[in-house]
Amino acid sequence: MEQTSAFITIIGRPNVGKSSLMNKILGQKVAIVSDKPQTTRTKIMGIKTENENQLVFIDTPGFHRARNELDKNMNKAVSDGMSEVDIAVLVVEAKPKFALSEDSLPPAEAELITELKKRKLKAVLVINKIDMLERKEELLSIITMYSKSFSFETVIPLSAKTGDGVDILLSELKKYSKPSVHYFPDTDVTDQPEKVMVAEMIREKLLRTLDKEVPHGIAVDLERFFERDTKDGEPIVEIEATIICERDSHKGIIIGKGGAMLKRIGSMARHDIEAFFGIKASVKLWVKVKEDWRNRQGLIHTFGLD
Ligand SMILES: Nc1nc2c(ncn2[C@@H]2O[C@H](COP(=O)(O)OP(=O)(O)OP(=O)(O)O)[C@@H](O)[C@H]2O)c(=O)[nH]1
Ligand SMILES: [Mg+2]
Hints:
- The protein has 306 residues and is an alpha/beta fold.
- 34% of the residues lie in helices and 24% in strands.
- It folds into 2 domains: 4-179, Rossmann fold, CATH 3.40.50; 194-302, GMP Synthetase, Chain A, domain 3 (2-Layer Sandwich).
- The two termini are 39 Å apart.
- It binds guanosine-5'-triphosphate and magnesium ion.
């Protein structure tokens, strides 16, 4: 049979569940997830190959008003993610955090819709987090509101958390496949190198543990990453990473009393890393301050965020 493939971009405001949705579709955690907005910072590809068909998903950072150079890069990753794809998936929430009004979508969503039109891109509307709805009828007003602004191919309410409705989305998306070679090896699940995934696993723990403005100003610089055998001949993956933050006060928070916070973050990350590689891991973390790094393209580049 002939090979087919489709490129699918996942776009939306921060925190609506784009990465959760991609992970659910792949049946594997490829992109980190947290309850803080702006979790995803770069384009992340997720690959799902079933027999002759290969779907390539592009998870993008949440589109938002840029406040610094890193934000600008993140928004650029969204527009890059929209070029040369076969279909876009606009993810919105079933329980929006803004007041519902037919003519005023949140600015970020309005902008994304303008971009879809400009690029003449087809799009599916996903209304995520339906598990949070008390009454399914609440969906109607949301569907009406979004359908006024764009002629979506279809509207699919689902829950990336429970998986409810995800199959329907998947079979809809397969329809946009075209005859083509597979761009990735059939066994690949992501384009991210292992090193990046490890740094991201550490950043996820920081996002989940820290509060207020601290997590947004963090980057993880993986300095050492190698596998060796212990004296008993058991394989172990050794990781040394520096957590970059923006202020001395943040450094104190990350380290915690007597180093307790850093220890906790390290052990949470180690747990995930061991599960990922299937062998023992050792995680050593340091914390460094680099003031205003999110406005310094050189540092942004060093951390792989451009
Ligand atoms: N109740 C519920 N929560 C969800 C669902 N999908 C995602 N979430 C939660 O929503 C939050 C944001 O999820 P992410 O997947 O990180 O969202 P995102 O759109 O990728 O966010 P950014 O990368 O910041 O743009 C997390 O706390 C998820 O657990 C869902 O279907 N139901
Ligand atoms: Mg994300």
